[in-house]
Design brief:
Blueprint lengths: L3 E13 L3 H12 L4 E4 L15 E2 L11 H17 L4 E10 L10 H9 L9 H14 L9 E4 L15 E10 L1 H14 L3 E3 L2 E9 L2 E8 L5 E11 L5 H8 L8 E12 L7 E5 L5 E7 L3 E5 L3 E2 L11 H12 L11 E12 L14 E5 L6 E5 L6 H12 L26 H11 L5 H11 L3 H5 L11 E3 L2 E2 H10 L5 H8 L8 H11 L2 H6 L1
Parallel strand pairs: 1-2, 1-10, 2-7, 4-12, 10-18
Antiparallel strand pairs: 3-6, 4-6, 5-6, 8-9, 9-10, 11-14, 11-15, 11-16, 12-13, 13-14, 17-18, 19-20
Keywords: FAD, Flavoprotein, Oxidoreductase
Protein name: Glycerol-3-phosphate dehydrogenase
Family: Belongs to the FAD-dependent glycerol-3-phosphate dehydrogenase family.
């Protein structure tokens, strides 16, 4: 049976939701001097924020919807994020093959305009329009690190080798990769380092206004323990559950709607030998990416399918997997089949319901709604994309800080996340230094640790002089010492937290190894190692 407890102090801000928006807001608020508590009912990044396409990008296709402000903000933000987290993010070149029969998604404003003035195009997407879009993409955000667009002759370039012969020309441009769930964890860690309290596996049962404060009733989903926290302001960053939180937890009427859109991905064996990403456009006007993934794999996604129930676990359906295989097979010489798939994953994007006819056309912009009519304010967060999470947090704090005289101003731009305090081009030097300090590491192992922990990799390994010093070997270079670090510093509690979120080592581990890891993590031995 769980016990009951009451926090003695009243915090400034209580945040519901441990995805990227909730953790980003908690970090920003804590750094401004606000006292913050965050509750996540599961593990951090256990829903949408670990199931993205792993890109932070301007959103090239959003230009067709005339979402210029959103694209410009995201483009500017790319390089801000690169500087703050060069271990978990890095530049990537994108190859967009072109052929004359490419078509628009039928409902975009651009397609309607072009059909009106150039009806003979019959919905086709001309090369000059793509090049114009890429010109805007290159110049809207004021690039300093990322190289600009160039044209490739696929008949001679190595990027053309895996593709069908009809693709003779491509445009190559820049965007960036991001380790999405690690981004969430690092924001939570930094928030905690600045004074925030991060509560995982803690469900908000109810939150009610009483005497000018929010009274929040919590339940730990592991122990059953109940706790009450009082807060001067509340943020609802529930992601797919944002509307449920409003109606069922806060017991308020929701005038705004959320549109749940499922994005599914497949991971296949490695389909090509270079390190660039493909941007494919389909006959239906939609787009997918084919991305080098975890060294030996290719990530293909995503779909856009309506998802009605946030409590229903999103899964890649047979139809979605086949759609992605067929889509990629329109481009690759060697067809992509179901036998190539080694893993699938799916996430639900909680888009603001702007009344668009299709899931693809629904806005990816974020919407923040403040309600302070009945006293203590609540800010409800709708939508958003991983690229603009920091700007969303700033916008959220702009609405919250007027209620707190002691709150400081914007501060997060350019401030490194844990382990990210090194130059954007400094990864290889860190890898070399780590191998020198720990000669038992090979290139893959050292690179994996640097990409996960950056300058903190030496703290993970500590005083180890041999592999044996790292404790139990769970497979795929994962050892007890690293697991203990993630349990102590990164809120990990079960094997799933580690092998599918903080790392992607589940792709390389057997079911038996993962079970052995879970058994160890829930044993007294793990507690002693922590």
């Amino acid at each position: 049976m769980g016990g009951k407890g009451t926090s003695s102090d009243t915090v400034d801000l209580f945040v519901i939701g441990g995805g990227i928006n909730g953790c980003g807001i908690a970090r920003d608020a804590a750094g401004r001097g606000l006292s913050v508590t965050l509750a996540e009912m599961n593990d951090l990044a256990s829903a949408t924020s670990s199931a993205s396409t792993k890109l932070f990008h301007g959103g090239l296709r959003y230009l067709e919807y005339f979402e210029v402000r959103l694209v410009r903000e995201a483009l500017i933000e790319r390089e801000t994020l690169l500087r703050a987290m060069p271990h978990i993010s890095w530049p990537m070149r994108f190859v967009l093959p072109y052929h004359k029969d490419m078509r628009f998604e039928g409902e975009t404003p651009t397609s309607k305009l072009l059909n009106a003035v150039m009806p003979w195009m019959k919905g086709r997407r001309p090369a000059w329009l793509i090049r114009l879009g890429l010109f805007m993409y290159d110049h809207l955000g004021g690039r300093k690190i990322l190289p600009g667009t160039k044209t490739l002759n696929l008949g001679h370039a190595p990027e053309g080798a895996p593709l069908k012969g009809k693709f003779q020309r491509a445009f190559e441009y820049s965007d960036c990769w991001i380790e999405d769930s690690r981004l969430v964890v690092l924001n939570a860690r930094d928030a905690e380092a600045r004074g925030a309290r991060i509560m995982t596996r803690t469900k908000v049962m109810t939150a009610t206004r009483q005497d000018g404060l929010w009274v929040v009733e919590l339940e730990n989903t592991e122990t059953g323990r109940h706790e009450t926290v009082k807060a001067r302001a509340l943020v609802n960053a529930g992601g797919p559950w944002v509307k449920d939180v409003i109606t069922s937890t806060l017991h308020q009427n929701a005038s705004e709607g959320v549109r749940l859109v499922r994005g599914s991905h497949i991971v296949t064996r490695r389909l090509f030998d270079h390190d660039k990403c493909y941007f494919f456009q389909g006959a239906d006007g939609r787009i997918i990416f084919a991305i080098p993934y975890e060294g030996d794999f290719t990530l293909i996604g995503t779909t856009d399918v309506e998802h009605e129930d946030p409590s229903a676990k999103p899964e890649c359906t047979e139809a979605e997997a086949q759609y992605l295989c067929d889509f990629a097979s329109e481009y690759f010489k060697q067809p992509v089949t179901r036998d190539d798939i080694v893993w699938t994953y799916s996430g639900v994007r909680p888009l603001y319901d702007d009344g668009a006819k299709s899931a693809t056309a629904a806005t990816r912009d974020y919407v923040l709604k403040l309600d302070d009519a009945a006293g203590a304010p609540v800010l409800n967060v709708f939508g958003g994309k991983i690229t603009t999470y920091r700007k969303l947090a700033e916008a959220a704090l702009a609405k919250i800080t007027p209620f707190f005289d002691h709150a400081k101003g914007d501060w997060t731009a350019g401030v490194a996340l844990p382990g990210g305090d090194f130059a954007v081009d400094g990864v290889q030097r860190l890898v070399d230094d780590l191998k020198s300090a720990y000669p038992f590491l090979d290139d893959y192992w050292a690179g994996r640790l640097v990409r996960a922990y950056g300058t903190e990799a030496v703290q993970v390994l500590g005083d180890a002089a041999t592999i044996e010093d790292l404790g139990q070997d769970f497979g795929a270079t994962l050892t007890a010492r690293e697991v203990a670090w993630m349990m102590r510093h990164e809120y990990a509690r079960r094997a799933e937290d580690i092998v599918w979120r903080r790392t992607r080592l589940g792709l390389r581990m057997t079911k038996g190894q993962i079970k052995a890891l879970d058994d160890w993590m829930t044993s007294g031995e793990a507690m002693a190692a922590e």
